[in-house]
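Q: For a teaching handout, I want to show students what a protein-ligand complex looks like in token form. Below are the inputs, and the small molecule is fructose -6-phosphate. Please produce the holo structure.
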Amino acid sequence: MKIIEAKDYNDMSRKAANILSAQVIMKPDCVLGLATGSTPVGAYRQLVERFEKGDLDFSQVKSVNLDEYKGLERTNDQSYYYFMHENLFNHVNIKEENTNVPNGMEPDAEKECARYEALIDSLGGVDLQLLGLGHNGHIGFNEPAEAFDKATHCVNLTERTIEANKRFFASADDVPRQAYTMGIGTIMRAKKILIIVSGEDKAEIVRDAFFGPVTPKVPASILQMHPDVTLVADAAALSKIPR
Ligand code: F6R
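A: Here is the structure, written as tokens, with fructose -6-phosphate included.
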């Protein structure tokens, strides 16, 4: 694993955008695996700026997102579909038909998960997968478990996640109970992985995930087994790694 240390969140975002930009420049019709959450917002902003300057062209890029809430309309401002359009897709020249997010409104989980896996295969796999890191080591919605979930699947959100998310919804009853997510196997099949982490609150999990044992109890630890992973993290997030 390659570790790139950034000064702070902005520097992490610039460095992550450099890697994403290089991918798009070197392979204009690449498949980008994308993530939501607060960590990638700055990198997406950087990509938009570079597009506006004329330095990046997304006209042939295809994207597949990691995950989506089950049962949320795309128009819901908490959906990951909405997030991606707000933060990136609406501001660059990526074609709508080339963007892919799991369809949260498909009630048949088996059908949607099989469709999403087949879709990724039909695109020739992911060239560069961007990931954030959860405080408990989750990647996508792959939470700590007894075994690694391989393929795209439907997860039941934990009470803790529902509780944490309820502030974004009118009431706790409106918080989705399930989500679709790429599996660990899906993520591991990406040719390259870029994981970005910021903040002292993630320092312990960075240490455990990348310097501790590989275990499904820390899902991101599996990335130690991937041949091409780059971790871009700020100094605060790297403050507890062994030097
Ligand atoms: C988002 C995702 C999640 C986040 C993780 C970190 O698509 O799959 O695994 O990457 O929860 O979230 P932030 O960046 O908000 O700390």
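A: Two things your students might notice: Residues 35-39, 66-67, 132-134, 138-140 surround fructose -6-phosphate (CB under 6 Å). DSSP finds seven helices and ten strands in the chain.
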